[in-house]
C-alpha cells in the first residue's frame, strides 16, 4: 500500500461531532498525517473547539512574531493567514508570495504538533498548499545516509519566516553557524505513533551541529533534494475547507497567488513536546492507510 499523505473525512458539521467520532478523527489524523474536511463553517472559537480534537491548544505565536503593530484579532490561539491589508496594515501573515517547504514552529524548543487551517476567502487561482510525508522521506533515504543522520542535530534558524521575512526584532546574520536558532534531531520520533520521521524545519540558515559549514551545506542540500523529490499532495482550497496536519511528520509549502486576489484563512494549533529520537523506533513499520470510514 502506498504511503498516505492525506485523507478526506466526510462527517458533516464538525461542530456537532460525538466523542467517539472525535476519537476516530484523531486516529485518522495520526494514520494519514493530513486531514481534509470540506464544507465547514467555523468562527474562530469553533475552530479552537475542533482543534482540541487533536490535542491541547497552543498559542498562535509569541508577540514578537506578529507583524509590527498587530495584535491577535480574536484569541491568542488563533492567527490569520492573509495577504489583505487594512489601512496599510496586514490583517495576517505570509503575504501572497511562495511559502517555502517548512515545518511549523521548528525554531521553537517545543514545536507545535497539529496545525489546523480553515479557508475563509480563497483566490480564484494559485495559493494551493502542498504536503509531504516525512516518515516516507526518512524511510526512502539510502541506508548509509539514514545511519549518518541518525544522531545529528540541525539548527532551526529563527531569523526568517517561511515567506522569507525577517522576524521582528531580529537582524540577519549571514553565517548559519552563528545565527540564532534551536537544535533539534534530524530524525525525530513522533511520540503519538512511535514512528521516525526526517525533521528538517527550514532550509535557510540551517546548520548541522558539529560539521564544517561546507560539509553541512552538502548534506543539507542532499537531504533537501531528497525532500523535494517526494510525492506531494496539494489542497486546492475551497471556502469552508478545514485542513489539519501533523508537524512532527509532515512538511508543507504554499504556492504564490496574484496580489490582486484576496486570501484569508484562520489558523489554530496544538502544543507539542520536545523533539527526541528513539533509535529503536526506526525499525518499526510505518502506519499505512486510513481507518476512518468514509
Ligand atoms: C501556515 C502555513 C500556508 C497557507 O499557516 O502555517 O504555512 O496555505 N500556511 O497559507
Ligand atoms: Mn506553516
Kindly describe this structure.
The chain has a single domain (7-283), classed as Double-stranded beta-helix. The chain has a seven-stranded mixed beta sheet with strand order 1-2-16-8-18-3-6, covered by helices on one side. Strands 7-17-9-15 form a four-stranded antiparallel beta sheet. The protein has a three-stranded antiparallel beta sheet with strand order 11-10-14. The model is unreliable at 289-294 (pLDDT under 50). It has 294 residues and is an alpha+beta fold. Helix content is 17%, strand content 24%. The structure holds N-oxalylglycine and manganese (II) ion (MN). Manganese (II) ion binds at residues 102, 104, 162, 252.
Largest sheet: 7 strands, mixed
Order of helices and strands: EHEHEEEEEEEHHEEEEEHEEEE
Q: Number of domains in the coordinates?
A: 1
- Gross CATH architecture: 4-Layer Sandwich
Please report which band the strand proportion falls in: under 5%, 5-15%, 15-25%, 25-35%, 35-45% or over 45%. Answer: 15-25%
What is the β-strand count?
A: 18
Q: Helical residue percent?
A: 10-25%
Strand order of the largest sheet: 1-2-16-8-18-3-6
- Rounded Rg: 18 Å
Average pLDDT, rounded to a whole number, is: 92
CATH superfamily: Clavaminate synthase-like
Stated plainly, the CATH topology is called Double-stranded beta-helix
Gap between N and C termini, in Å? Answer: 18 Å
Q: From the helix content, strand content and strand pairing, which structural class follows?
A: alpha+beta
Question: Which CATH class is shown?
Answer: Alpha Beta
Low-confidence stretches: 289-294
Overall outline: globular
Bound molecules: N-oxalylglycine, manganese (II) ion
Q: What is the number of helical segments per DSSP (H or I, 4+ residues)?
A: 5
